[in-house]
Amino acid sequence: MIKTLLTALLLSSASLALAQDFNYKTYEWETRPAIHPLSPEEEKEGAVIIKDTRIIEYAMGEDARLYMAKTLHKIIRVNSDKAMEEYNKVYVPVTNQKILSVKARSIAKSGKIVEMDNNSMKELKNVGEYGNFKIFAIEGLEKGGEVEYMYTLLSSPKESGREVMQSDVKVKQATLEILSPRNVEVVTQSYNGFPQLDVQGKTKIILTAKAENIPALRDEEYATRKANLMKVDYKIASFTNMYGTTVDVSSWRVITERYNKVVFEEKPKEYNKVAKLLKNLKIERMNEEQKIKTIEQYIKNAITLRDGSGEEYISIEDILSNKFGNELGLIRLYQLCLKTAGVANYQVLVSSNRYEARFDEFFASFNNLQHFLLYFPKYHKYLSPANVEYRYGMAPYMFANNHSLVLNSAAVHYIDGADTTLNYIRKDVRLTFPAEMDYVEMNVAYAWNGHRAAGMRGAYHYQNEQGKEEFIKGNLSSGMEDAQIISKKLINEKMDHSAENQEFVLQSSLKAGSLMEKAGNDIIFNVGRVIGKQTELYQENERQQDIDMSHPIQYTYQISFAIPAGYTVKGMDDLVMDHYILEKKEKIAQFAANYTIHGQTVTILVKEFYTQAEYTKKNYDAFRKVINAAADFSKTVLVFERISNE
């Protein structure tokens, strides 16, 4: 989003003029297509992409400007009703692009071919963040048949782009080709196993790579699937002008200079507006951190983040007047407020959401410049303008454990994550049993800290009153849906408590009958359900992706109760568990449960932690045992046996 906004501001646009020497004009599909053979395993798949060819061409137009044409050619076998429904329409993106050619057809198992009528195309406008599309239906498609389509789009040159070559279905053959004039240097970087592009060509520079039998990448729990897909990033690195001078286009230095023209732009009217705002906030006598927190609190309470482009979204005057701005506008407002307030030591970072793409510090490109952060080296703390649930302190988990570009210096900065001492969930539960032993009374202190506190505060704060009640009930009654809440109290629930990383605590008393079951004279006590519902990992296929936990975290549960008079307790040893991942003789993840009995008082202590945000897939079996141990514990029961009077 940031890249798009910045490009719109800094690059001049022109009407599209057709280039004379595009190669796409000579690229054709088979005049007599036939159904492609598949292996028995591929026949069982819902769909298989037979061919995925993409050709990106840079060439000079009739107006002596550089243009880019992109040709996409796909052939897809559909073997199921679901696949037919998914692939019976073709979407052609047309925002800021001109369709040069488009055609599509279906090929039946019998060999019958039905070609698309171009007049049947319809237009879809403003489809989310994807822009405008032309859409057309594929006629004559049947199970066991194939869809084939091909189109070429003309646009102004993209300085950088990305081609994702992997899918949720198998790709039998994928080809990427990039062509450019000899005075335009295009460089590429392949990720996640796609081959690096080879350089060929004489009159033109041709970069090409081909991969076969790319497996479908499944959705897996605890994985950054989108970031893990095979892909190729490309960019115009430099061009040589008519005077023989080579101009750098996309080094970190050049990219930073272009950002800085907008982010640090100073306008007297904007400065005056900010100075007046700061005077009203009365920050003159505050220390630096108090100033930072006060500025953030005002902006996040008063200004709304909105997607959009245009002057009203980035002008500080307009933002303060309209009470909304886009992310570029908000970072302009933050940095001018900080500078005017006398906060000297801060850096403006641009980074990627690591769930979408990891920031490559060695490949300077706009592709991964998605979101802004502020970093304060003196305090080693961050501020995220776009993430309203976070406050000054930790970097949001989707940006942590990732690199970023420092606009102040064109350097690369690593955004580290919070450790488990600052990022935990704690649940202390004291249980009592009435004489009838038909329900359990509970006094609970449920506390969140760090990333979890930020998320939970946001989930509570940005709700209406009914939503807040549902939030409380949902968290307290997890694993015991019949729980009746007798009393409740929230501590440190306000959003600004996140800046101090204070615990967000939900204190309550409640009772639940579902935890107790009578079995003759004995009572079955479902003690494990006190910790709430737990995730359980099932493994039907071999793990494909490395593990991502979002952030390091620690869970601590303490459950205490007195053994009811007239009963003994059985099954305590079933509570004892210990599963862990060992690396270099150190436990980097663990679920451990144990208990103590002093007189009639039982104390159960459960600890679960993950010291890293990321684990390699070789650790998946051990990781799965740790995760599932929590689910196993939640199913444990104790038996209160009646003491015989005989």
UniProtKB/TrEMBL annotation:
Domain DUF3857 per the UniProt entry, residue ranges: 70-216
Coiled coil: 271-298
Highest taxon listed in the record's lineage: Bacteria
InterPro entries (alphabetical): DUF3857 (IPR024618)
Signal peptide region: 1-19
Pfam family, one: DUF3857
Record key words, sorted: Coiled coil, Signal
Keyword Signal (UniProt): yes
Stated name of the protein: DUF3857 domain-containing protein
Organism: Rhodocytophaga aerolata
Upper classification of the organism: Bacteria, Pseudomonadati, Bacteroidota, Cytophagia, Cytophagales
